[in-house]
């Protein structure tokens, strides 16, 4: 394992100062500290410079933000490689690509949420950001609980494997995966009943005062729905990433593994907002991505289940499968023309006329 430049610097300090810092700056803490600092600075830049409240997010701005978050994620990948070696770096990039691919598929659902609540273009950026930040908090809790349970009861991995196998097969064969019935759900009705809401134009606000009472606007409801929707997404993504990172069903998570799980999730989710504004107009063009992701879920489900027979698939092969499936599904979506029915062609001719 390579020595961190920060550790080298500390070792060269006077003995008295070195002894003071030695107990706080272990290798693991240096890596986690670097991740935390990068994350805070990036969020401040995103909020302060690239995300102006009450302004519509343009394609140019979304492109810059997408490049920013992807570039930052790749820089952290290089950092993980330098600090923890190629194996940890391969785990990180595999987990990140998996989360990123799922994010593209989730854009459909976000489009439906904003349409259902008639959110203005100027309010979408901040609402999506707040929803994503809440989702990150939930994911941190779920990951922590999941890692604790798996370390204690490793057989849970086989349950996750069976779940991913079932989910992958179901996703592969179903025709439409982007249904949104939140308005009719029990959760939606429960939130509307428990919290005081107003149907007035939010004008970028999450709560207003009316007749001396504090009322929540539809933007608050949108943020809650976005966060809860991401919890549903996490049921697939977190077991998938955990399987990619874990060296075996009975193996314990290393500090490097835990960092990879957290960082890949957080970087992919934070990049989702700009990706939404960049791809929302073309999201329906990736029509074979669903099958590509389904195949990956099936592969990872099988990978987790065969651990029972002490068969371990190396992370390099897993990375290859992810890249191949996503690449083929996106390429096929672009190159294979959409088949139109006779009725659709007739309607198009009528519109032109």
What this model shows, in words?
A two-stranded antiparallel ribbon has the order 1-2. Strand 1 and strand 2 form a beta hairpin. The protein contains 14 helices and two strands, in the order H-H-H-H-H-H-H-H-E-E-H-H-H-H-H-H. The protein is mainly alpha-helical and 353 residues long. The protein has one domain (5-335).
Number of helices: 14
Question: Unreliable segments (pLDDT under 50, ≥5 consecutive)?
Answer: 344-353
Span of the ends, CA to CA? 69 Å
Helix content: over 70%
Largest sheet: 2 strands, antiparallel
Classify the secondary structure makeup into a structural class: mainly alpha
Number of strands: 2
Main sheet: which strands, in order across?
1-2
SSE string: HHHHHHHHEEHHHHHH
Assembly context of the chains: single chain
How many structural domains can be distinguished in the coordinates? 1
Morphology call: globular
Strand residue content: under 5%
Mean pLDDT: 80
**Could you tell me the radius of gyration in angstroms?**
23 Å
List the helices and strands and how they pair.
Elements: H1 5-11, H2 15-22, H3 27-50, H4 59-84, H5 86-116, H6 121-152, H7 156-173, H8 186-194, E1 207-210, E2 213-216, H9 218-245, H10 255-270, H11 272-279, H12 289-305, H13 315-335, H14 342-352
Antiparallel strand pairs: 1-2
